[in-house]
Amino acid sequence: MTVLVIAEHNNSELNAATLAAITAATQLNDAVNLLIAGSACLSVAEAAARVQGVSRVLLADAPPYEHQLAENVAPLVVRQAEGHTHLLMPATTNGKNLMPRVAALLGVAQISDIIAIKSTDCFQRPIYAGNVIATVQSKDSLKVVTVRATAFEPAIAEGGNAMIDQVEASGDLGLCRWERDVVTESTRPDLTQAEVVVSGGRGLGSAENFQMLEERADKLGAAIGASRAAVDEGFVSNDLQVGQTGKVVAPKLYIAVGISGAIQHLPGMKESKVIVAVNKDEDAPIFQIADYGIVGDLFDILPALSAELDRSVN
Amino acid sequence: MKVLVTVKRVVDYNVKVRPNGDGSDVEIANAKMSMNPFDEIPVEEAVRMKEAGMATEAVAISLGEAACQDVVRTALAMGMDRGVLVETDARLEPLTVAKLLAAIVKREQFDLVILGKQAIDDDSNQTGQMLAALLGWPQGTFASHVVVDDDRVQVTRETDTGSQTLSFKLPGVVTSDLRLNEPRYVKLPNIMKAKKKPLEKITPVELDVDISTHLEIIAVAEPTQRSGGIKVSDAKELVEKLRNEARVI
After folding, report:
1. What is the pTM of this model?
2. How far apart are CA A154 and CA A248, in angstroms?
3. What span, in angstroms and rounded, lies between the C-alpha atoms of A116 and B49?
């Protein structure tokens, strides 16, 4: 019996979150198949075949899968489920959209956003915004699982040599029509992959001030993140939100600027290696988890920090 | 267009939940309970559809113990027309909730079901997608913008890379993200009026749905705590510490 991982990709590149899901899969079983549903996505399959730990790549390459519509992809996954003990996908927005549909079609439960594997049927996952960790055992013979990417080391992307098998594509069910994607273009590192993340909150006060933060981030080669409050205020776009319902990040260095540390924000970043907080309120909850805190006006501290970084680089 | 909205009764978002003494479950006795914040948004959306003349009827449903009618009443006070409570003391998993909802939808012929994308207690983010699967309906998840045009719905979704817009013909399922709308505050006279609105109670047995569980909660525990660090006086000291002590820059 084998574990099936459903790949997250954009038809040209394999998303790094998939590598974490592959690692989780290898903890369950030595045999790991990787399903790639997409359109004109052979390059993704070729990259996937080189990932260590992947036994076989199943490629369903057809136009109905181009935009990852759950209505079309779910029946494909259900057909491929036979012969597998577990279906895994990273808990990305695509994974969260697709996998419950798959689970319901199969009549089984889903275990969402796992952070550890205890045995083949027992998993740990955060509940209550990560304030509690639940250990959950599944009674289903087939387990549908989404994987929190920051909780598992990425599989090594090169060195593997898996076979690529084409699998039969299903047609377009015609239930749902893709209209458009609006992709936020950025030259900065990907938020979920970056080694350094600089995050801003309501304390920034405006979109213009957020740009100032971005300039500082660029000096560190950092990705930009934001609290929900900053996104709600319209300072930045939604894809930068870190927290319970946004992205979960675990960089080497997380710098929280003007973020008070609401319980909804902390689960998105508290696994970071080193946390720095800049806030004018010395009682802000963020200081309770920060390794280094500076109490003060961020508009004084940021330029000083920037100058210090300049000086120490030169 | 008949609209169904789900409302879940959860521990209030301001309460910090902890494991109970023997670590078998979370300690929620005597905790303040409220409507799941994510569910206020679909209620608001449905009430606006009603006010705009697009929805003919807007119904709020909750599933669980008798006290769940409190959150249904809150939804009625926000402007929903009537309520349904699927009453049971059993622990309900997302798949079971989806099955119960599917039974209600088939019974009453709803055109649109709007759900919050997740509940702040179990953070599962499953029920809407599962309901769509069971009904064979399209799904627009994590919606930040919804436009209903006759029998078509256009849904803009929040994604990891930005946003995606989909459209589908009704019937369908929408799950809301945080920025779909800003829910209204409930006014006192409306709370009084809500008490007079109809609230039907029904059981899983009457709906002929098997509510046995697929998952067992073995244990709950607190996560490893991060201890707070030190305060530094200025940017210079911070950069020095990050470089020489933490060695991250």
Report:
1. 0.95
2. 15
3. 43
Q: A78: nearest CA in chain B?
A: B133
CB contact under 8 A, B123 and A128: yes
- Using CB atoms, pick whichever of A112, A177, A263 lies closest to residue B126: A112
Residues of B in contact with A227 (CB under 8 A): none
Please check the confidence at residue A314 and state whether its pLDDT lies above 70: no
Mean pLDDT to the nearest integer, A76-88: 97
- Best residue in B38, B117, B135, B164 to probe A by mutation, most A CBs within 10 Å? B164
Closest residue by Cα to residue A94 from A41, A15, A165: A15
Give me the total of CB pairs closer than 8 Å, taking one residue from chain A and one from chain B. Answer: 262
User: What would the 3-class secondary structure string for chain B be?
Assistant: CEEEEECCEEECCCCCCEECCCCCCEECCCCCEEECHHHHHHHHHHHHHHHCCCCCEEEEEEEECHHHHHHHHHHHHHCCCEEEEEECCCCCCHHHHHHHHHHHHHHHCCCEEEEECCCCCCCCCCHHHHHHHHHCCCEEEEEEEEEEECCEEEEEEEECCEEEEEEEECCEEEEECCCCCCCCCCCHHHHHHHCCCCEEEECCCCCCCCCCCCEEEEEEECCCCCCCCEECCCHHHHHHHHHHCCCCC
Query: Distance between CA A96 and CA A51 in Å, rounded?
Result: 23
Tens of pLDDT, residues B12-33? 999 989 999 999 999 998 999 9
Separation CA A194–CA B25 (nearest Å): 36
Q: Do A238 and B158 touch (CB under 8 A)?
A: yes
Which residue from B124, B218, B221 is facing A112, i.e. has the nearest CB? B124
Q: What is the ipTM of this complex?
A: 0.96
The verdict on a CB contact (< 8 Å) between A292 and B214 is: no
pLDDT at A313: 61
Contact B232 A294 (CB under 8 A): yes
Alpha-carbon dihedral angle through residues A243, A248, A249, A255, given to the nearest 10 degrees: 0
- Using CB atoms, which residue from B216, B231, B239 is nearest to A312? B239
Per-residue pLDDT tens over the stretch A242-292: 998 899 999 999 999 999 999 889 999 999 999 999 999 999 999 999 999
Contacts of A307 in chain B (CB under 8 A): 235
> Which token pair is A75?
């029946």
A140-167 pLDDT, tens digit per residue, is 999 999 999 999 999 999 999 999 999 9
Interchain pair B162, A247: CB under 8 A: no
- Contact yes or no for B229 and A292 at CB 8 A: yes
Nearest to A140 by CA among B123, B32, B247, B214: B214
